[in-house]
Design a protein that fits this description.
Layout: E1 19-24, E2 36-41, E3 46-51, H1 59-70, E4 76-83, H2 89-107, E5 114-121, H3 128-140, H4 147-153, E6 162-170, E7 173-182, E8 195-200, H5 209-218, E9 235-240, H6 255-277, E10 285-293, H7 296-308, H8 310-317, H9 324-331, E11 344-347, E12 350-354, E13 357-358, H10 364-371, E14 375-381, E15 387-394, H11 398-405
Parallel strand pairs: 4-5, 8-9, 10-14
Antiparallel strand pairs: 1-2, 2-4, 3-9, 6-7, 7-8, 10-15, 11-12, 11-14, 12-13
Helix pairs in contact: 1-2, 2-3, 5-6, 7-9
């Protein structure tokens, strides 16, 4: 079960003017499950995306990058689960492109205006014939209030759908934001085995969209990890339909730009944290805050060293305050001039280590009390400067091994 992850509230999944979503059962891998989603986007929308840094990226990721660079105006997205279309070579590229052609032919625009997305098992041939056969039903189902069904349809090993929304006033106009994501394992930026889609009716200059998508990803999906594995298919797409009744935002530093980014970042962080809360086999949600570093980059480097340590993660699962494992991870994070006598370590309100050594006032029962919680904050003070950063992760349980051992069966 996910860790303190609330079910999506349909009342907060706001329809976005200019976006319609349709879902169907195409039998891509298993029968009787929602596995094909289409997103129809009105002309005039601005679209950008952030994708996996894995050099062995999937065919749809390659096609998406190419189509976004073409700057023809994205009019549709096609999302399938059950098959990642990764590790499939030239044939996979041809099948991803065929998906785009099939969608475009039904809607009267070009294949370059379609973005394909796939998630599921790697190195299996994409059943593009089933996708084509399901497109008409998915298109017929398209409506503006289908966000929850879409969140369910993009799931793989997820145990719960992930969907959030919010509204914000910009220059006197009410602006809506809604997003969905999927992911539970093979999670590590840049980015994670995840798909994320966010739309707003805000008016955003097309020249800002790439920056907006990058900054949203950097503050959310690039701050989560479940197991340290970077996937082949990670994609995060941001859509601004330009339908709201306010002036076009041409700078993220303007008051309207800052307000929009803050609202969208709040949704993106909820979506990213939901992936960790639903991490495969997870029983605990852990925030790792590293402070007093010279740079944000080194703070993040230390945070990920802690978050990726199997010894640390299994100790959290067992509620065992074996906290020397955290200090060891700080030490091997790669900061060559780190002074261990400047390090302080906290578990929530419990001061564990002082100047690199055990706090004389620390008691094992206090550490165990915190370790038994379902939500835990680890704070590490490096004593090197004023920078700080945070990474969200989960524990590592027996169930994680079971899920991944049986994933293809």
């Amino acid at each position: 079960m996910p860790v303190n992850l609330p079910a999506p509230n349909p009342a907060e999944l706001f329809p976005i003017a200019g976006v319609r979503i349709g879902v169907t059962e195409a039998g891509i891998r298993k029968a009787n499950r929602k596995d094909l989603t289409v997103v129809l986007i009105d002309e005039g929308a601005s679209v950008s995306g952030v994708f996996t840094q894995n050099r062995f990226c999937a065919a749809p990721v390659q096609i998406c990058r190419e189509h976004l660079a073409g700057d023809q105006g994205i009019r549709a997205m096609v999302i399938n689960t059950g098959n990642a279309n990764a590790g499939t070579g030239a044939d996979g590229l041809a099948r991803a492109q065929q998906t785009c052609v099939a969608m475009a032919s039904r809607q009267g625009f070009t294949a370059q205006q379609v973005l394909p997305f796939s998630t599921g098992v790697i190195m299996e041939t994409l059943p593009v014939d089933r996708i084509e056969a399901g497109l008409d039903a998915a298109i017929a189902d398209a409506k503006s209030d289908n966000w929850l069904r879409a969140a369910e349809a993009i799931m793989t090993t997820d145990t719960a759908p992930k969907a959030f929304g919010t509204q914000v006033m910009l220059d006197g106009a009410l602006v809506s934001i809604t997003g969905i994501s999927k992911g539970a394992g093979m999670i590590r930026p840049n980015m994670a085995t995840m798909l994320g889609f966010m739309a707003t009716d805000a008016c955003v200059a097309p020249s800002l969209m790439k920056q907006l998508a990058l900054e949203l990803a950097e503050g959310s999906f690039n701050r989560v990890t479940v197991d340290g594995d970077t996937s082949t298919n990670d994609s995060f797409v941001v859509i601004a339909t330009n339908k709201a009744a306010h002036k076009v935002i041409d700078s993220l530093s303007s008051p309207a730009g800052q307000a929009l980014k803050a609202a969208m970042l709040g949704v993106a962080q909820k979506l990213a944290q939901a992936i960790v809360r639903d991490g495969e086999g997870a029983t605990k949600f852990i925030a790792i805050k590293v402070e007093d570093g010279q740079t944000q980059a080194e703070c993040r480097q230390v945070a990920y060293a802690i978050a990726h340590s199997p010894l640390v993660k299994t100790a959290f699962f067992a509620s065992d305050p074996n906290l020397g494992r955290i200090l060891a991870a700080v030490g091997y994070a790669g900061i060559t001039d780190l002074d261990q006598t400047g390090i302080h370590l906290y578990l929530d309100d419990v001061h564990v280590a002082v100047k690199g050594g055990r706090n004389p006032a620390y008691r094992e029962e206090d550490g165990q009390r915190v370790m038994k919680q379902s939500e835990i904050t680890v704070r590490v003070l490096l004593g090197r400067g004023t920078a700080a950063d945070t990474v969200w992760t989960c524990d590592l349980s027996h169930e994680y091994v079971t899920i991944n051992a049986d994933y293809r069966s």
